């Protein structure tokens, strides 16, 4: 039996998508469901979003796209970061739209798949993927007709959209908008945080991921999204430390004080509880914080429950992510970001999907 229960609220995912779709209108709101929908399950998430009217999905790899196509025969599916030339046949057979990141990919697509329309990725300052400004200029000169060359739109990606005042946001926006206007191509620009930079930072198609899953796209202020994930895990054992005291966990990194009550809880770093939370993180019992003591193990972690009014017993449930501790807050304690917390959630939890209403 699973020691943890992971609840994923599809109604909240759908509400988050509707909120963003309303905010960006008349731009189109797609959904990024790469990496198994950020660890939450691509099938239930994508099906709920498609039912709600989402018509465009973005994934990272060809394999993800082929799996999604089998579930949703009619939606648009774009592939962000896979090879293009070796995959041309599969891409076209499954009616997938690749993102063309470099000149070789553009040449292959134009030669073998045009006039089927792909996204052309312009690197506006992140230096990760996409055509450099010089490559874009050269391509523009030699391409009289984008449609005929198999290019249906231009996309770019912000490096610092979660920092509202970062100067790179305007620089990237201006480069992308200028290129799209000159070429008269549709533009896809905003990720979750980019959407919140304002209407002129979004382009014609936005690509939110994290905000759909309840993470905060505006870390400089309160989270405008509905929480999606709840994670609770059972207590395995409770002990009171003997009068001679001792130490707790691997490496004896924490002191066990006489009389201290420790609960051992059944999740560890193999379940996505980052080891960096050792001696730092917290779990919650009925709203009361229980600090982690000692190092996080692979399958368990110890917390101090001495001060709780009701001492937990084996089989009781501790909140890991929920009303008292968001995925973002847990990530912060671990020195990482909510994306990594969600995509690290292990396979050992019993998963429950709360269905989306039809409202
Ligand atoms: C992952 C990704 C997104 C989604 O980003 P969020 O910050 O999760 O909204 C959008 N565009 C690209 C290119 C991505 O790689």
Break the fold down into its secondary structure elements and pairings.
Elements: E1 4-9, H1 10-24, E2 28-29, E3 31-32, H2 34-38, H3 42-51, E4 56-59, H4 62-71, E5 76-79, H5 88-93, E6 97-100, H6 103-112, E7 118-121, H7 133-142, E8 151-155, H8 167-183, E9 186-188, H9 192-195, E10 205-206, E11 229-240, E12 246-248, E13 254-256, E14 261-265, E15 282-285, E16 288-293, E17 301-304, E18 317-321, H10 327-333, H11 338-344, E19 350-354
Parallel strand pairs: 1-19, 2-10, 3-4, 4-5, 5-6, 6-7, 7-8, 8-9
Antiparallel strand pairs: 1-11, 11-14, 11-18, 12-13, 14-17, 15-16, 16-17
Helix pairs in contact: 1-3, 10-11
What features would you describe in this structure?
With 359 residues, the protein is of the alpha/beta class. The protein folds into two domains: 10-213, TIM Barrel; 229-325, Lyase, Ornithine Decarboxylase, Chain A, domain 1, CATH 2.40.37. It is 28% helix and 23% strand. The chain is built from eleven helices and 19 strands. Strands 1, 11, 14, 15, 16, 17, 18 and 19 form an eight-stranded mixed sheet that branches. Strands 3-4-5-6-7-8-9 form a seven-stranded parallel sheet. A two-stranded parallel ribbon has the order 2-10. Strand 15 (282-285) and strand 16 form a beta hairpin. The chain is elongated and about 85 Å long. The protein starts with a strand and ends in a 5-residue tail after the last strand. The site of pyridoxal-5'-phosphate has 12 residues, from helix 9.
